[in-house]
Amino acid sequence: MRNSVYFFIFGLTCLCLNAWAVELVEPPRVQVDGISVTISWKTNVECGTRASYGLSPDKFDQRIDGPVSLLHVVRLEKLQKDTQYFYRVGSAKVWLHTGNFTTSTETRSGSEKVREQKTIPSTPPLALKSKTPPARETWGNINTLQDHYDRHGQDFKAISPEDYARQAWEFLQRAKTEGLAVKQDESDGSLRVYDFKTRAFAAYNRNGTTKTYFKPSSSDYWQRQPGKVVRLMPQSSP
Amino acid sequence: MHSCPICGYPKLQESPRSISGGGSYEICPSCSFQFGVDDDDKGCTFIQWRKAWVANGMKWSSKGQREPKDWDAVKQLATVVKKKTPAKKRSKK
Ligand SMILES: [Zn+2]
User: Fold this and answer.
1) Is the ipTM above a cut-off of 0.90?
2) Nearest-by-CA chain B residue for A220
3) Domain A120-230 is found in CATH 3.10.450
4) I need a labelling partner for A108 at 20 to 30 A (CA). Which of A213, B5, B89, B91 fits?
5) CATH of domain A22-119
């Protein structure tokens, strides 16, 4: 009798573990940008982020770990030019996908070589103007500009709220022309932009007006931001 | 309108978090917490921030937005602290 109870509990535990098994929601997205590669993937339940990669399918000798999340993003940097790499992604407990990519000699701002990447044509109306519009047009809620400037203006050596708002707007233009990293939040249409070189981060409303602009102090802040990785179209000529 | 989960200010323009879990980046004009920054980047919890705000005298923080004439920090705070306080358990006989 006792044995059958143990067997029942064991079976129930297995069933539960199976129900909570981590699975990919969709195949990973791989963005090749010269010798840097961004891999993002979604899982059905929250789990840790782990990717490993190497030069042969049986030698994943490099590893990157990230936070517990549903949306996982890792960036592999300083890879060799024009080289095929093999990678696998998953969590600390399980590998979920194995694949490969080839780096290039050119970055996204040069000749294009971007794969498995969604391009969105959502050019905000403001982007069509060549001169920087005034803050009352570019800042989402002008009443809040002073507070954002007080907190973050010094990150960009801004000399006034107007100057800070201008820099935030120009950052969005750079996201289009220089191909900065962009994520689109599908729940509200907002955009998040990050520059890996300067570590500047900004968020914009659906219509392109600025929500905030600052330099995060945590190194994985960008990786933890939600949203689908997208590419903004370069600015059309006015 | 949304209320601040830290100080109870009732007129935030956006929900502190979107459905995706992202911060609104709005700075509460009352307690100055920036959602998605002070928590996600600086690692502050709501409770830590609230304690610090209370310890500093619960002052109106925004320079860009004027303190409302009828603003009452204590009354406002009570709305959020009340919500967070669990109901007292009745003793069973
Ligand atoms: Zn507040």
Assistant:
1) no
2) B41
3) yes
4) A213
5) 2.60.40.10
